[in-house]
Amino acid sequence: MQVPAYLYEIILLLYAASIFSYFIDFIQKNRKANVFAFRLLTLVWFFQSLFLLQEMIAHAGLPVKDVYEGLYFYAWVLVSLSLFINRIYKVDFLTFFLNVVGFFMMLLYIASSAYEREWTQTIPFMDEVLIAHVTLAIVAYGFFTLSFVFSGMYLLQFQLLKRKKGYRWWTRLGDLGKLETYTFISITIGTPLLLLSIVMGIVWAYTTAAAFYWIDWKTIGSLTVLAVYAIYLFLRLGRGVRGKSLAFYAIAAFLILIINFFLFSTYSSFHFNG
């Protein structure tokens, strides 16, 4: 499909923002986030349908003659199902995961087409995917760092209150409940950003000449970090774990992140090796 690359970039941005909003709704049951995500996804579906219709008219049939067109149609089907499910059945977690798969398929289609069909903007587009992958990961790490700081402050405040010492620090460190909430919010924002970053990294690696291995320290480390923070959210929301034990968990999660960032990067076969 001869669609300008910048239009696909707009679709991907809308799609990524929709997934992020669906995640916020999934975690916090935020109605405004759900409505915003639905509207963004509707825009994505509108653009996808427009390009699909254009291709159907041009070729007098569904554009499924090769694997790349099949990926596009697959992504369109997933978005259509997601909108239907979100509107009729209100199954939040299904909508979120369905869109993560749809985003992966859409990005894979665009990246694959860029190489196979020799787009004139191939290199800039793939560079942008790589930059987006790294940027999202670093921003996610920034929010995880915030969660680490809030958790440390929580534990310090907890000890001061328990020993009834350091009165002048009590007001400066903040309320225990607020510190725990700030930790939760930081991780809630960082987790979908890291998920999107990993999806972009995998697609970039598969569609370029870069050597990519699933059994690579950096790949395993990044997936582990994502799983560790997902478990944090599960413990808080699913198990009702709160307080000191959850603060210790958040600090331990950050230490795993640090190990992944510095140590695993050293042993990676393709990250930071030029």
Kindly describe this structure.
- The chain has 274 residues and is mainly α.
- It is 82% helix and 0% strand.
- It has nine helices and no strands.
- The chain has helices at residues 5-28, 31-59, 67-88, 92-116, 122-163, 167-173, 176-207, 217-237, 244-267.
- Helix 1 runs antiparallel to helix 2 and helix 5 packs antiparallel against helix 6 (167-173).
- The radius of gyration is 21 Å and the shape is elongated.
- The two termini are 32 Å apart.
Care to count the β-strands? 0
The secondary structure category is: mainly alpha
Report low-confidence residues grouped into runs of 5 or more: none
- Work out the helix count: 9
In N-to-C order, the SSE pattern is: HHHHHHHHH
Mean pLDDT: 83
Radius of gyration: 21 Å
Please state the overall shape, judged from the principal axes of the Cα atoms: elongated
Oligomeric state, counting identical vs distinct chains: single chain
Largest sheet: none
How much helical structure, as a percent, in the residues?
Answer: over 70%
Strand percentage: under 5%
From the N-terminal CA to the C-terminal CA, the straight-line distance is 32 Å
Keywords summarizing the entry:
single chain
Summarize this structure briefly:
The protein is mostly helical.
What's the helix and strand layout?
Elements: H1 5-28, H2 31-59, H3 67-88, H4 92-116, H5 122-163, H6 167-173, H7 176-207, H8 217-237, H9 244-267
Helix pairs in contact: 1-2, 1-4, 1-7, 2-3, 3-4, 4-7, 5-6, 5-7, 5-9, 7-8, 8-9
